[in-house]
Amino acid sequence: MAGSTTAERGERQRESSGPPPARRLRQPRLRTIIILVVALALLGAGGVWALYGSNWLRVERVSVSGTRVLTPAQVRAAADVPLGSPLVSVDTEAIESRLRRKLPRVDTVDVSRSWPHGIGLKVTERTPVLVVRKSGNFIEVDRKGVRFATVSTAPKGVPALELATAPSSSAAASLRRFGEDRLVREAVRVAGALPARVAKDTRTVKVRSYDAISLKLTGGRTVDWGSAEAGGAKGRTLVALMKASPDARHFDVSVPTAPASSAS
Fold first, then answer.
1. Is 88 found in the same domain as 145?
2. Which of 120, 179, 234, 246 could bridge to 112 as Cys pair (CB 3.0-4.6 Å)?
3. 144-198: pLDDT as tens digits
4. DSSP at 162
């Protein structure tokens, strides 16, 4: 019987050696990909459940820092943080908005998540630079001209703002032209420009018009400041003038390049 041909022997050798390498690798690789996809899906579902459905990451406490006049209890009440809610779902912007709306004394607030169970509220309160007397109380005004709180006792060391609203021609015209809020802001600019040694002695900032602002100091001393412009130069000039004329009762720095002082 004739032996097998070369072609037949090659075919039998290919059959005995099994499928080609590419085919042998394809099936395990596909299986690995499927396993990885399933594992990732399970991990994702588990993460979502841990964040939203479990009791592991829920709000249990609210910490408050930075308060001076306000109390932590007042801040917590105004923030109204939803205790028991998933920490990840807490709307920090809504909390900040509530605090600003309910507590005008709050200037800025940083709302942060403190994993796994806390919300942190870091508050910065407004600082009064002037107070306005009204009906026996005092309205606090901050450096931006915002009237943010009414108190029964004036804060120590904060000068009073006096708006000369008597129907004099200059005062009436200035109020009509600029409005009360603008004049208050000008007074705030003056208060903010006062050197420390002058600020501690200032009792009243009086506004008769936009460019006629004056100061009442301790000991019955007065200062014509003029407008709020060139506040730094006026402050330096006033300090030098007070050193040069310690017994003077009246100072005029409305034109800082030509200051004056007098005994009355």
1. no
2. 120
3. 999 999 999 999 999 999 987 656 556 666 666 678 888 999 999 999 999 999 9
4. E
pLDDT single digits (tens) 192-241: 999 999 999 999 999 998 899 999 999 999 999 999 999 999 999 999 99
> In terms of DSSP H, where are the helices of 67-179?
72-79, 92-102, 169-178
Write down the residue that tokens 């605090």 correspond to. 99
Q: Domain of 94? A: 61-125
Burial of 30 per CB tally in 10 Å (0-12, 13-18, 19+): exposed
Domain boundary among 104, 125, 146: 125
Kindly report the CATH number assigned to the domain that includes residue 151. Answer: 3.40.50.10960
Find where tokens 């014509």 sit.
Answer: 224
**With left for phi above 0 and alpha for psi between -120 and 50, is residue 164 left, alpha or beta?**
beta
- Which letter, b or e, does each residue of 104-134 get, where b requires 16 or more Cβ atoms within 10 Å of its Cβ? bbbbebebeeeeeeebebebebbebbbbbee
